[in-house]
Fold each of these.
Amino acid sequence: MRRRLLQMLCISLTTACAPSAQASGYEAAPSEVELTIGRTKHVLVEGVSSNIQVNGRSVPVKVELQPAQRLHVDNFSFSYPTGFTVLNSASEGAPTSASWMLKGRTCQITIHRKAKGTTLNFLADHMAEFYEGLPEVSDLSRNTTRMTIGRKSVSGVRFLMKTRREGVSFQDYFQLPTPSSQYNYFLVIHAKPGDQSEQQARTMIGSTLR
């Protein structure tokens, strides 16, 4: 029986889901995962290598399940892939200036807690001046980007830049729709365009934010 997984597929089409209890006395059947590329649906079986057609080319894929972790930040939480490490920091004497970083091998995702008066536009303007002042940053551009959080499409700001160390990368800024009388929370995503682990984590966070 087919069932949907909340988590998205990364570059090896790896899904992430919370571990489930296994009944004793028999071996559970592999899960089937439905993947839609464009208008074409593909049914993949967990742990089985197969080939799918993408833009007229045969592409080898394999679905592997990974458990998910959950990060709790003040009055909200969300799930993220286990491949990320959590780092927490707070400025002494300034409780509003705190951050929680999910650091992956190829990207990082950070939650920033700021004073209630800080808005996305204010933060983006401040960061634009910061990036423009860095000598190693070239080809800096500022555009609008979007992210699905729950059932809503949330607008954000993308800084696309080029550096000698990283080449082309982006920084996405979103204000999270989390209710608080004291703080505003911002999600910052740093990755290279097309990074599949970033796309998996982004989708997981957006679909599990509570």
Amino acid sequence: MTEEITYADLEFNKSYALENIPKPAAPEEKGVPSSSSTWRLAALTFLILCLALLLGMLALGIVFFQVSSDFQKQIGNLTRNQETLQTNFSKRLQDMKNRLCLKGDENNENNGPSCTLCPANWQWMRGDTCFYISVQKKSWVESQKFCSLQNSTLLILKDQDKLNHVPARDKTQYYWIGLHKSRNNSWYWEDGSALSPVKENWIYLYPSYNCGYLYGEKINNYYSTEEHFWICEKAAVKLSM
């Protein structure tokens, strides 16, 4: 009887113990996040992108402002430099005019905003031509060569009025000019143009002689080998202010 009670007690205790053992919790199921979580994540991402864009635009604006400011300073410096250079150039040009420009005549034809320049030892009266009157004598060919080396020609007198532009000279002397006779006995000026039919009373040419010279206010001719003074002419340089 005692053994039966003891066995029954053991069986009861065993069953009770087994019933009271805590069962492990069931694992939570991993499912798809809810729509609320997805919206928050998207909003956060969008906010971060907006902040990044805002910071980028702010940085770009700062750089643009700095570059624009530097550019404006450079323009200001260039403008001041240009004004300084212009002022210095005007002063130098005025100084050059005072040093190099000819005095002009009584009508101040050479004292305006532009003036005429001639090489050293050349003379200017008016107009746009410089003249060289020699102080030594040469043949016509040597006189022509001298003028050519000076980038000029012997004096061409197609019009008697041009004599009013030729500087003062000794009118008792003979001066070779750019007039010569060709092999066909035709007369030509140094620029290649033919002498117009002589009707004026200031040109006297003789068949025996081949080169023209100026004597006083008249044109005559003689042998080219004869030595005389000569007159060269060339275009003057215009200096504008």
Amino acid sequence: MPGPDAPLRTALRYGLIGLGVLVVVSVVIATAVAGTPGLWGALLGAAIGGGFILTTLVSVLLGAKLPPSTQGLVLLVSWVGKLLVALIVVGVLNQFDFYSRPALFFTVVGALLIVLGAETYGVVSVKVPYVTTRAGDDETASEQE
């Protein structure tokens, strides 16, 4: 029987697979269209977009065993932290021109869509029981009354 965090672990696995496929496809297309700057744009876009989405899932997995208030704090801090890191990275990258901006943009958007879609599929495809019974507990609710 899968554990309560099985959907999250499956979502992480599917998200990483989706990100890996996106990296290969976007690197090939961006390099063919824009050369070496396209390669860098695709790699940076996959790192930014994939890292942004996967960070949330990892923080949920890490905080799953914590009390609800602490888990909420972990999620809030991780969300604000990843937002600040993304803004700083984009601000720093804005000063350089060694990468293709369209390749970066399309790869970030692709990463957001593909990784979120893969994670969603991973969560909904895992069957986890939401009711637990004790061994030998065969009585129904009507028999108990």
Amino acid sequence: MDEFNLFKFLNDDNEILQAEDQHSRDFPTFRVHFGEYFDDFLPSQAQNPHNPESTESATNEESQKPPQELDVSRFPIISSDEIQELKSVASNKNTSRSKKQWMNVFRSWCQCRHLEYVSIEKMAPEKLDKVLSKFYAEVKKKDGDDYEPESLKIMQSAIERYLKEKNYPLSIVRSREFHSSQEILNAKAISLHQQGKGKRPNKAQPITPEEESALWEKGQLGDFNGKVLTNVNFKNLTEQLGFRGRQEHYDAYVEDVIIRQREAGTEVVELREGPTKTRSGGLTIRRKTTPQAMFSTDGGKSDPVRLFKL
């Protein structure tokens, strides 16, 4: 191995050579001949890394590129209105209706108190906290009765949602700046509970076998006309496939269900779940792992699969 020579890395003034100067001295022929073609292999903004003007020039050229030359086939340009429309898809219809309803209640309260209604999203937190405290304490139904405690929570959430959509910087539910109004609302809910509010049953009770038999005998369920057939299928789909309320029945498509024959020869109606009120199909929503199915019984008049196929 050749002996390391420190002096070949020094110039005439005993200063350390830069790498490119060293290569230039050791390989002058290589630098001259290869350098003629080397620039062709570099991007335009990197051809002269020591000259910031070359990079700035390339950037200016990109910024001055006319819009018609931009490739929008893969990344189309979306307007602000289209972005808002996309966001509205994730908003449940009932949620939007609730927000509108409670904001109308708030505006009506402002009019009754001879308050000049201003956009609450423009109010300072201190002022808005005072306004909400008074509103929470005084709000009632049109007939003068108090709202249920759960309704007060929905009301607060609706106002919170409105403010969030208007980019209000604080939360009227969690921020300490709204501690007073939060206390007022909580105290009113406690008072209403003590008065017996909020004790209504929160779900419908299933009909008993005796009640169902009576419906068949009275002709309310059956297959002899379209009305009673709709009734019995509404009941079966609700009980066995988990449809909730009229809206899910209305939103369902024929393609959402499939009739499959089992190995034993009996048939089953299986549901392929689509978006629902509480399971909208977003990234954080998990699909049900257990199949939703309605099984055939004896093929008689009350067989749910037979009635569904009619």
